[in-house]
Structure formats: C-alpha cells, structure tokens
Amino acid sequence: MGKFRLPMGSPFQLLLLACSFALAGYAGVRLLADDWFEVALWFVGAAVVHDLVLLPLYAAADRALVRTVASAGHGTVASAGHGTVASAGHRVGAPAGHRVGAPAGHRVGAPPAPARQRGRAAYVRVPAALSGLLLVVWFPLISGRVADRYESATALSASGFLARWLLITALLFGGSALLLVVRLRRATKERPPVA
What we know:
It is a single chain. The protein starts with 10 loop residues before the first helix and ends in a 5-residue tail after the last helix. It is built from 4 helices and no strands. The model is unreliable at 75-94 (pLDDT under 50). Helix 1 packs across helix 2 (113-143) and helix 2 runs antiparallel to helix 4. It is mainly alpha-helical.
C-alpha cells in the first residue's frame, strides 16, 4: 500500500497554511506589543551577525572538514594495480569490478572516492549541527549568565546545563561514529573478494 499524500493545494493544506500564518501573526503581534524596537533590532542584528560572521565561519569549517576527511581517506582506497587491458574494458590482473579509465581504487557502480569521502563528512556535520543548535538555544543557561533569573523564575537549579550539553554532544558524536563503523563494516562484508 502506497503512502498517503495530499494533493498540492488541497483545501486541508490551504487551511493548515492559513492557520500557521495566523499563529505566526499572533505571536508577532504579542512579541512586538511591548518593546518592538529592541525586538526588531535583535532580529536584524541576528540576521546580520549570522550572514556576515557565522555563515563564513561554518562554511570554512565545513570546507576544512571535507578536505580533512578526503585526505584521511585517500590512502585507504585500494589501488587497482597495473595490468594489461583485456576485452570489455577490464584490466588483466586488476580486481574484479575495476574498469580501465576509472580512477585507481574505483569500483564499477561505486561512487567516486571524493563523493564517498564527502559522504563520510556527514557523520561529523550532523552531530556538530545538532550540538551547535543546542548550544545556541540553551547558551544563556549553559554559560551560567542567567542562572539567578532562571532559579528565581522556576525554583530549579541552573547548574548542570554545561555538563548535560557536553554529555549530549559526546553521545551525538559517539553515536555517529558507531553508525559510521557499522556501515563501513557492512560495506566491507558486501564487497566481493579481491582476486
């Protein structure tokens, strides 16, 4: 049985869209009712800081990550070896699945090595993005800057947010590394033996 999908522009989708706009409008009116200038200034400042400072920083960090992962994995791809050309574009003496003209270590049907390496960078990107999002959302409590106000408003202790954020970050990276190892082992087991 196929997945149920609403047709684009169905009355139900239009109603949901109208309700979400109404809710966002209500929240905006309530937010801007008291101190609209400072809220608007905060939004503009956040957009400018993000676009002019943070975006170039994490784009550069991502580029460095992809280069590092690609250079670290460069030596792990098995070389196709040398051999004479046989019929149908295969090398004599080369492992099964390797083609003439393909980069050394490239298997037929497998993505090229740089694409595989970029894919492996996702195992660092995802936990880093989630950890960064948690840091941005909970930064006042993680840094301890609003601990007194938090404790007076909630009657709960503000201690421990830094330790919990570090624990969640470690679990995210550990889970991602475990998933990468499992997938690499599975890919190694599925690969036909090299002759």
